[in-house]
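We examine the record.

___
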Amino acid sequence: MKMLTMTTSLTDNTQPADPRQSSARGRWLVAGLLLFGLTATSTISLYWKLRLGPYSPYRQALKTAFPEGGPVVEGGNLPGLPHALRVQLTVGFSPEAGDDRVETIANQVRDLVAGLDRGGEYETLLLDLRHPKPPGKPERLEVRRTLKSPPAVPGE
C-alpha cells in the first residue's frame, strides 16, 4: 500500500510589506461597517415611521383609555374588508361573545376611533381582544363594528 504525504513549505508571506497599509485598510473597514450600521438603522426607523405613523394618534388615545391593553393598531385594505382599522388589545379576562365587558370595550373603542377618524377614512373596526393564558395560546375574540353611519334618508 502506497501512502501519500503532503508537505508544505513555511514561508513568511503572511506579513504585509508595510504595516501602515494594513492599518489603513482596517480603518476603512471599520468606517464602512459603521456607515452600514447607521444606514440600516435609519432605514428601519424610517420604514416603521412611515408604516405606523398614521396610526399613532389612535394608539396614543387607546393607550390613554386602556393603559394595560398594550394597543396595536394597523389599518388598510384587508381581504374582504376595504378601509378597515384593526385594533388589538390585551384584556384581563377571557373574552367571550355576548359578554357585557366585551360589548362595553368594543363600544368605547368604536367611539374613540370614530372621534379621531375625522376624514372618515375607515369603514370597519376589527377589534381583537386577547387574554394571555400562561400555558399556551392566548384566548382571543374578534369583534367587528361599523365606523361609518348609514347615510340619512331624506324625509325621515
In short: Helices lie at 19-52, 56-65, 100-116.
